[in-house]
Amino acid sequence: MLKLTYTEKSFYLECLTQSLEQWVQGRVILALRVGQCLCVEPSTASFLLPVNLPGVEALKAEVLKAEIKGDDKEIMALSVCDAEYLEVTLRGSWISNGSEDAEGVFVTAMSNRTEFFVHKLWQEAQKSASVVSE
């Protein structure tokens, strides 16, 4: 599963081996034990990848192949933002304390191969961004 943790100023993407159902179940049990509110709702999450990042064309091909085969149908969509960036939109679940602030966790599940590939591309984009900012 892919887990995107959103904070006030940024987000972090992780690829976890635990199933989506197991992870959500663990979060629900934790919230019950500590008396915390928990809101789980269907949602989408988006992030940008540079179009010139090695592997982006392969990701486009992977999404097209999944659409044709019916795998991961409507879980991931790619949209061109401009000449420099591609928007990756994922469909999954938003988990938060139910308040109006933008902090929470987004989780989704698709094929292990696709999850790993998306995570690897995001990591490469982060490396590229940190080199540019230095």
Could you characterize the architecture of this molecule?
The protein has 134 residues and is α+β, with helices and mostly antiparallel strands. Helices cover 38% and strands 33% of the residues. The chain contains 3 helices and 6 strands; from the N terminus they run ββαβαβββα. The protein has helices at residues 20-34, 56-69, 112-133, and strands at residues 2-6, 11-15, 39-50, 76-80, 85-96, 104-108. Strands 1, 2, 3, 4, 5 and 6 form a 6-stranded antiparallel beta sheet that branches. The termini are far apart. 19% of the residues are buried. The model has no long low-confidence stretch (mean pLDDT 87). InterPro entries: Alr0857-like.
Can you tag this structure with a few keywords?
single chain; Alr0857-like; 3 helices; 6 strands; 33% strand; 134 residues; 6-stranded antiparallel β-sheet; alpha+beta
- Indicate the multimeric state: single chain
Query: Which class of secondary structure composition applies to the elements?
Result: alpha+beta
State the helicity in percent bands: 25-40%
Count of individual beta strands: 6
Overall 3D shape: globular
Distance between the termini: 32 Å
Order of helices and strands: EEHEHEEEH
Structurally, the number of domains stands at: 1
What is the average per-residue confidence, as pLDDT, rounded to a whole number?
87
Number of helices: 3
From the alpha-carbon coordinates, what is the Rg to the nearest angstrom? 16 Å
Uncertain residue segments = none
The profile of the biggest β sheet is: 6 strands, antiparallel
> Which band does the percent of strand residues land in?
25-35%
